[in-house]
């Protein structure tokens, strides 16, 4: 089993308290995070901050199976929500765009799609109503082509 060190610095560069991170209360055996592999860590982080309002909580420099990595961790977007992580292998020259589809919930799908375009993303499928499910669903791609499903729930 791989071991990964806790974040060693905050977004502003200040050291993080490892003890505080270890003392966080978490339920056992639950889904806790998603890691998206990217080629350009900072540009991708800017995309997710701009489009989804994600807040960076830390950075990690480590290795997985002998390959050096850098990661950016983002705060969960709600109580009980999972953590989103961007991961870059330092030896990777391009991103893979077919390993996962990320799902985001929004209160305004049209505004979100405009933010995605402004941040360097693209529309892969316009929003479609699924009245029987009480949702509107669209597919967009981030700045590196990763597929994102965005859902607006009807009241």
Question: Would you spell out the secondary-structure blueprint of this structure?
Answer:
Layout: H1 18-22, E1 33-37, H2 41-52, E2 56-64, E3 67-74, E4 83-89, E5 102-106, H3 109-118, E6 122-130, E7 135-141, E8 147-153
Parallel strand pairs: 1-4, 5-8
Antiparallel strand pairs: 2-3, 3-4, 6-7, 7-8
What does this structure look like?
This protein is an alpha/beta fold. The protein is built from 3 helices and 8 strands. The radius of gyration is 17 Å and the shape is globular. The termini are far apart. Mean pLDDT is 83; it is low at 1-24.
Summarize the structure.
This protein has 155 residues and is α/β, with parallel strands linked by helices. The chain has helices at 18-22, 41-52, 109-118, and strands at residues 33-37, 56-64, 67-74, 83-89, 102-106, 122-130, 135-141, 147-153. The protein is globular.
Structural class from helices and strands?
Answer: alpha/beta
Number of helices: 3
The ordered string of helix (H) and strand (E) elements is HEHEEEEHEEE
> Describe the biggest sheet?
4 strands, mixed
Intertermini distance = 44 Å
Provide key terms for this protein.
four-stranded mixed sheet; 3 helices; 155 residues; globular; disordered N terminus; alpha/beta
